[in-house]
Q: What sequence folds into this?
């Protein structure tokens, strides 16, 4: 369970080597479509820390 500064809404997440993070989000019914998630470090994006997810009706 998250504690302290790890709680609350965020738009960035720290992921250390070998860790996994589960992202939970809420999307209103009008926000269907495709969204991109990515790391801001280009070398990390090249290594797979970038992807696409889709919100379906």
A:
């Amino acid at each position: 369970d998250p504690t302290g500064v790890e709680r609350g809404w965020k738009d960035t997440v720290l992921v250390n080597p070998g860790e996994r993070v589960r992202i939970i989000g809420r999307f209103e019914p009008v926000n269907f479509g495709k969204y991109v998630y990515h790391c801001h470090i280009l070398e990390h994006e090249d290594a797979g820390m970038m992807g696409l997810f889709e919100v379906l009706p």
